[in-house]
Amino acid sequence: MTAQGEWVAAMWLALWGVLVVAAAEHVRDLEISEGAPVGTRVGFIGDGSGGDSGPPYLIVPVPGSAVDNELIIEQTTGEIRTRVPLDRETRASYSLVAIPTSGENIRVIVRVLDENDNAPTFPSPVMNIEFPENTPRDVKRTLNPARDLDLGVHNTQRYNIVSGNVNNAFRLSSHRERDGVLYLDLQINGFLDRETIAAYSLVIEALDGGSPPLRGCMTVNITIQDVNDNQPIFNQSRYFATVPENTTVGTSVLQVFATDTDAGENGQIEYSINRRQSDRDGMFRIDASTGLIAVNKPLDFETKEVHELVVVAKDRGAQPLETTAFVSIRVTDVNDNQPTINVIFLSDDATPKISETAQPGEFVARISVNDPDSKTEYSNVNVTLEGGEGHFGLATQDNIIYLVIVSLPIDREARPNYTLSVIATDQGTPPLHASRTFHLRVTDVNDNAPEFSSPVYYANVLEVADPGTSVFQVTAVDRDEGPNSELTYSIRETSDSHSGWFQIDPRSGLITTKAHIDCETDPVPQLSVIATDSGTPPLSSTATVLVTIHDVNDNEPIFDQSFYNVTIAENEPKGRCILKVG
Predict the structure, then answer these.
(1) Span 233-332: which CATH code?
(2) For residue 237, what are the CA distances in angstroms to 230, 255, 326, 398?
(3) Which fold has domain 3-113?
(4) For residues 365 and 403, is the Cβ–Cβ distance under 8 A?
(5) Angstrom distance (rounded) from CA 333 to CA 329
(6) What does the DSSP assignment read for 497-542?
(7) Half-sphere CA count of 247, side-chain side, radius 13 A
(8) Contacts of 297 (CB under 8 A, 6+ apart)
(9) What's the CATH number for 340-443?
(10) SS3 for 231?
(11) So what's the architecture of 126-225 in CATH?
(12) pTM > 0.70
């Protein structure tokens, strides 16, 4: 520390000692504008009232007040001048204590007066915000406010939109909070439409209350966000095209085109054909991305000459919008049709079948031929029938309607199916051919009785067999089908046989003992087994089963009487029989 610094510190301590002891002191308030040039007189320490003893003064700056660096104080005169340009925003006041040679101490406070030397300043020169295009009117968005270091009227007073406010789409509002900052809001002033104006670039200025006012600017870039408020629009409301009927599948017919002024997925279009209202058979298809319509199935002029399509263009928005256009496709005729054959089967359920009991001359099917190109029945056609091995033929009276008839008796058991082909040949040059092949099923009737594998069967069983013992299994077959071939077995009861000793399973034909059997009563009982089918009426056949019962030693000897009485002469010779028992 220098000698002068030590002296100032000592004087400062002495001053405070005096201030503690003194009952009062003078306070001298001075003011100077912050824009005053260097060397401008601020004033004098003494006010000229004679309340102090005047100069010279001992100057004691208040610590941290920067008096020595920024002010010049003449100790001999008490004059105070500026040493440097003052800045209220950096330092708003200076404080010092002047100690005269006699009299009371003087506290001098120099206040720096504000001037409008600071323009409002925004935190950043550019601000980016977004508004959906369906934002309602008067909706606010808070913007970064401008800050001004000046005070009072020299602070920020208002905001203006300088440029970029096309169609007066926005307006500003502001309010001042307790912190003295003038806050700024941007409000929707009308209705936004991204498809008309997709973005705005507003230049906003902040002005203070100076005269003239100082100002600062900020650019606000506003992006209008798209909402799906526009449906696709076709470039035509109706489209027309012509295509030959022999066009191959996949051939392009025409292309539809729609646009959507929305952005992103809201403006991306997918094409489709409304199948509920048109083209339910899917004769045409459309590329979902390009709108290209192509043939999807073979066309036929004779079936349909004009196809009306309802084409839908739908965007990909979260809530998609769509529009429709009509496409009229005319099919032109090509002479590419051979004779057509129509077959109607005359069975009870209109299927290709005939009963095996059908007699020659009975009808199987009705056949008609026509020419699709002329859409009239085409009589100049030669019709023939192939297959059937002579059991079927054709009959006609007008060469238009033909009848397939039975020519020879048929037997399902000999052949259950026939493949027949009807061939139609026109008289053109070269002739065109058409054929229709069908498989005719011969239906069964119950005309075959069951057949046993043998008319007589031989079986063996021990006479000690318990009831339920297996004896023999008979087997019969029926050449019919279905219920006509389902068999049931039974044993015919007769009074002169012992068939009651046996029983038979009606489904399997297994014969078992029903009761105890006895070889001594009937060593070879004879059974008549019947096989009956389930036809209407049922047919049956009979086979004989001879069951040999094998004897076992199951009987003890029995005398013909329990007591015998014999008289013999005493002179009977030796070896003579005197009694025979049995």
Answers:
(1) 2.60.40.60
(2) 17, 13, 7, 52
(3) Immunoglobulin-like (2.60.40)
(4) yes
(5) 13
(6) S-GGGEEE-TTT-EEEE-S---TTT-SS-EEEEEEEE-SSS--EEE
(7) 23
(8) 249, 281, 282, 283
(9) 2.60.40.60
(10) coil
(11) Sandwich (2.60)
(12) no
C-alpha count within 13 angstroms, C-beta hemisphere, residue 289: 0
92-111 core/surface letters (b: 16 or more CB in 10 A; e: else): eebbbbbbbeeebbbbbebe
Amino acid at residue number 556: E
Q: 202-248, pLDDT tens digit by residue?
A: 999 999 988 899 999 999 999 999 999 899 999 999 999 999 999 99
Q: What is the dihedral of CA 150, 151, 154, 160, to 10 degrees?
A: 80
Reported as a single tens digit per residue, the pLDDT across 113-161 is 888 888 999 999 999 999 999 999 999 999 999 998 888 888 899 999 9
Sequence-separated (6 or more) residues with CB below 8 Å from residue 84 = 38, 69, 70
Note whether 154 and 148 are within 8 A (CB): yes
How many residues belong to the chain?
A: 582
Contacts of 453 (CB under 8 A, 6+ apart): 474, 475, 476, 477
Three-point CA angle 72, 73, 78, nearest 5°: 150
288 Cβ contact partners less than 8 Å away, ≥ 6 residues apart: 270, 271, 272
Homologous superfamily, domain 451-550:
Cadherins (2.60.40.60)
What residues contact 499, with CB distance under 8 A and at least 6 apart? 491, 492, 493, 525, 527, 528
